[in-house]
Amino acid sequence: MVHQARKRFGQNFLQDHNIIYNILANIHAQAGEHWVEIGPGLGAITEPLLQENIILDVVELDRDLVSFLAEKFRQWENFTLHSGDALNFDFSALVKKDEKLRIIGNLPYNISTPLLFHLLDNAYCIEDMHFMLQKEVVDRICADPGSKKYGRLSVMMQYFCATEKVFDVPPESFDPVPKVMSAIVKLTPHEQPPVEIDDIKLLNKVVTTAFSQRRKTIRNSLKKLVTEAQLIEMNIDPTLRAEALSLAEFALISHHIVIEE
Ligand code: SAM
């Protein structure tokens, strides 16, 4: 089919067969597993995935592509097509018995961050997720404290998941060719959170506030939430900047704050 790629749906279709092969080689799909693909597009990853004898649900927003996919994969009994927006999709409703979902997607870049957080609301029913994202976003997700890329996305994603960059993908691998490099990231939700927190909203508040003024010391950037004396009591140096703090230190601070609703 001739499909005019739509910018508003973030459509850059994978063309490079080596990259598709490498993705399949890295995800280790096993027969019988339950997978969900977000944004299957023209089916570049869908077809080789189906050949692995997995159970595959796909969620696609573009109605023209939904019609195309329905026709293209109509003979596959292990294939279920959902027409709709992945941002509102109830992934937990797909789960049968004790299974966990494995998720994959070459994600539309414009919605990747909200989509990641939507998926993390259902982290308990997800085994792992492999996503193609802008390389810059993958680097931020995986960044360690002390790095310039370390920020809110790193801390919040690392609270929920083990993060691992798999490999970079150059722009020429897609049609149309995007302006930026891409990369594959593997996210594996933790069985147990790596640190204790009272409420995710409190952690989010501390992290967002600290990084909104990342060049200031936390004594200044966090002064509305916590006093210098409290930071010292927690054994956290108030002259540090947000980028020097570990997830454990952000969690510790979050125990000492309240949010006024
Ligand atoms: N998986 C295909 C590939 O690798 O060639 C297409 C990837 S393209 C970057 C992103 C796909 O996500 C497109 O098919 C687009 O229509 C779809 N999409 C965009 N926004 C979406 C949304 N909110 N929910 C579900 N699919 C979406």
Explain what you see.
With 261 residues, the chain is an alpha/beta fold. The chain has 2 domains: 7-189, Rossmann fold (3-Layer(aba) Sandwich); 200-254, Helicase, Ruva Protein, domain 3. It has 10 helices and 9 strands. The protein has helices at 17-27, 46-50, 63-72, 112-120, 135-142, 152-160, 200-212, 218-221, 228-233, 247-254, and strands at residues 13-14, 34-38, 55-60, 79-83, 101-106, 126-134, 161-169, 174-175, 182-189. The strands form 2 sheets. A 7-stranded mixed sheet has the order 4-3-2-5-6-9-7, with helices on both faces. β3 (55-60), α3 (63-72) and β4 (79-83) form a beta-alpha-beta unit. α7 (200-212) crosses α10. The model has no long low-confidence stretch (mean pLDDT 96). S-adenosylmethionine is lined by residues 9-14, 38-42, 44-45, 59-62, 65, 85-87, 106, 108, 111.
Annotate the secondary structure layout.
Layout: E1 13-14, H1 17-27, E2 34-38, H2 46-50, E3 55-60, H3 63-72, E4 79-83, E5 101-106, H4 112-120, E6 126-134, H5 135-142, H6 152-160, E7 161-169, E8 174-175, E9 182-189, H7 200-212, H8 218-221, H9 228-233, H10 247-254
Parallel strand pairs: 2-3, 2-5, 3-4, 5-6
Antiparallel strand pairs: 1-8, 6-9, 7-9
Helix pairs in contact: 7-10
